[in-house]
Design brief:
By secondary structure, this protein is of the alpha/beta class. The chain has 13 helices and 17 strands. The radius of gyration is 21 Å and the shape is globular. The chain folds into two domains: 51-291, 3-Layer(aba) Sandwich (Aspartate Aminotransferase, domain 2); 295-396, Alpha-Beta Complex (Aspartate Aminotransferase, domain 1). The chain has helices at residues 38-41, 50-62, 73-85, 97-114, 135-141, 144-147, 165-171, 195-208, 259-262, 278-291, 296-317, 341-349, 372-396, and strands at 17-21, 24-27, 32-35, 90-94, 122-126, 157-160, 176-181, 184-185, 191-192, 211-215, 239-242, 253-257, 322-328, 331-336, 352-353, 355-357, 361-364. The chain starts with 16 loop residues before the first strand and ends with a helix. Pyridoxal-5'-phosphate binds next to α4. Its main location: cytoplasm.
Length: 397
């Protein structure tokens, strides 16, 4: 790598991609890679999906940006469609996941304030959570490695050390505004939250008049084989943050809420210069066109099952490396017996792109449009990479 003028915040792989098509990426020197990272669960419809390309080009020819000083028809359309497909009645558009979570936290606090309980501003979160990298969302995530060196942790967040309903009960007090969690912890290591735990949280929130806030930035928009992961548990949240998949690669996010809860967000309480801009709305609507097509989500669920079963076979063949297969739909994780970095690098040599996560997990989040060909390629790459690592391990012993 040459000397760089960029912040050194990322340990980037030495790869430059020039174009993408479906689940495949090509470098400048014409090497092809199968993309099972999908820009960290973002490219939900793969690369250069014709419907998305067309929507973006059409909009680019007409109008890019006007700000929220004016009505943006694409916002109304996308918000109505999101509300029709979910628990929500109201939507605020953002440019990223962290901003969607920030809006969710503000909405929860404002709801309590509006109800005459301004002292209720604390959000309970869970160990292993990830909610973004702004000052508030690193406080929400509660992870020391992200908080270190950035001054005092923003107040109003309490991270609970276990997914334990008794502990949650004990932790709710007169300052609690809501509970925030991911239905499947993504960065934390594809840790699925039991549906029974989500149900218990829902009941607890109802009993204590605090809000259930879901962060579906990674799990949302079809990733788990349902439009949103909360559907699996048969509950609905009061507020939900989404991003990643809804833009299919265009930076955007949204905060969804029930009418009652969003009521406090009156003119002047929140804003974003870019949020919901015409380009983003064109792409978001185009993503929904495809994801809401009949059979699309069923297909994601089916493909996810096939991939997960194949991975279970891989676990049986490589028990010296793989402990467990985790996740749902096309958000899957291989819990390894070591940190995932070496396997990620080895897989890259085999032409497969993956991404690590916490808890020694190798994360697979391919485009939702993959088929058997891609599954076969990925498995063969995994087998070859694990064989190489096994041989290297034998040599060193
Ligand atoms: C990626 C992610 C975020 C942050 O999204 P950004 O767009 O990077 O700000 C928040 N929550 C979850 C669950 C995520 O996976």
């Amino acid at each position: 790598m040459t000397q760089s003028s960029l912040y050194a915040t990322y340990a980037r792989a030495n790869l430059e991609f020039e174009k993408g098509e479906g689940a495949w990426l090509t470098t400048r020197d014409e090497r092809r890679f199968l993309d099972f990272a999908a820009g960290i669960a973002v490219n939900s419809l793969g690369h250069a999906h014709p419907h998305l390309v067309e929507a973006l080009k059409d909009q680019a020819d007409k109008l890019w940006h006007v700000s929220n000083l004016y009505d943006i028809p694409g916002q109304h359309k996308l918000a109505e469609r999101l509300c029709a497909a979910t628990f929500a009645d109201k939507v605020f558009f953002t440019n990223s996941g962290a901003e969607a979570v920030e809006c969710a936290v503000k909405t929860a606090r404002r709801y309590q304030y509006d109800k005459g309980a301004p002292e209720r501003f604390t959000i309970l979160t869970f160990e292993g959570a990830f909610h973004g990298r702004t000052l508030a969302t690193i406080a929400a995530g509660g992870q020391a490695k992200y908080l270190e060196g950035f001054g005092p942790k923003a107040p109003g967040f309490e991270s609970l050390p276990a997914l334990d309903i008794e502990l949650v009960k004990q932790s709710i007090n007169e300052t609690t505004a809501g509970i925030l969690l991911e239905p499947i912890q993504g960065e934390g290591g594809i840790r699925e939250i039991e549906p029974s735990f989500l149900k218990a949280l829902r009941n607890l929130c109802d009993e204590t008049d605090i809000l259930l806030i879901l962060d579906e930035v990674q799990t949302g928009v079809g990733r788990t084989g349902r439009l949103f992961a909360y559907e699996e548990a048969g509950i609905t949240p009061d507020i939900m943050a989404i991003a990643k998949g809804i833009g299919g690669g265009f930076p955007m996010g949204a905060c969804l809420a029930t009418e009652e809860v969003a009521d406090g967000m009156v003119p002047g309480t929140h804003g974003s210069t870019y949020g919901g801009n015409p380009l983003a709305m064109a792409v978001g609507n185009a993503v929904l066109d495809v994801v809401l097509e009949e059979g699309f989500l069923d297909n994601v669920a089916k493909t996810g099952l096939v991939l997960k079963q194949s991975l279970a076979g891989l676990k049986d063949a490589y028990p010296d490396f793989i402990e467990e297969i985790r996740g749902r739909g096309l958000l899957l994780g291989l819990k390894l017996k070591m940190p995932p970095a070496d396997l990620v690098a080895e897989l890259r040599k085999e032409g497969l792109l993956t991404v690590g996560a916490g808890d020694n997990v190798l994360r697979l989040a391919p485009p939702l449009t993959i088929g058997q060909e891609e599954i076969d390629f990925a498995l063969q790459a995994l087998e070859r990479a694990l064989d190489t690592m096994r041989a290297a391990k034998a040599d060193s012993q």
